[in-house]
Design brief:
Helix content: 25-40%
Strand order of the largest sheet: 2-1-3-4-5
Number of strands: 5
Number of helices: 6
Oligomer: single chain
Strand content: 15-25%
Distance between the termini: 22 Å
Order of helices and strands: EHEHEHEHEHH
Shape: globular
Length: about 140
């Protein structure tokens, strides 16, 4: 499993997000990107199935640019960090088929818990009894 992480803005919110990700996953599996072009190039190489990608969009325009490579994300579990909770932003976000949505000014505690659960639960196998009771934690899950 790999954890690909994209955030272009380096500010307090991004630092909190980075800390939440690092608390959930070992450094060996985290690959960080600060440019969409670099992320696109990385997606052209082999990405392990069932890997996790955390995308932090600074604005609606950046989220729109992310749509250009959504076909490359079919076997990757997406977590999106959105710039706002406007209906149009959320509709656009759902085109990427995320497993979980967060907002840039959230505390990222729930995001951290979701990442931990995704790493510990082998995808494609039934969840453990303790994880099965909390399946509602993952918003926007795939059908």
């Amino acid at each position: 499993m790999q954890l690909l992480y994209y955030a272009s803005k380096n500010d307090e919110n991004e630092n909190r997000l980075k800390a939440a990700i690092q608390a959930a996953a070992s450094e060996e599996i985290i690959e960080r990107f600060t440019r969409l072009d670099d992320l696109r190039e990385r997606l052209r190489s082999i990405v392990e199935p069932d890997s996790i990608m955390i995308l932090a969009a600074v604005d609606r325009e950046e989220l729109l640019k992310m749509q250009a490579f959504r076909n490359m994300l079919t076997e990757i579990f997406i977590i999106l960090v959105l710039p706002d909770r406007q209906e149009s932003t959320i509709k656009l976000a759902h085109l990427l088929r995320p497993r979980f949505l967060s907002q840039v000014n959230d505390d990222f505690t729930e995001l951290n818990q979701i990442v931990v659960k995704m790493i510990r639960t082998p995808h494609g196998s039934p969840p453990s009894p303790s994880a099965a009771g909390n399946s509602s934690d993952i918003h926007g899950s795939r059908p």
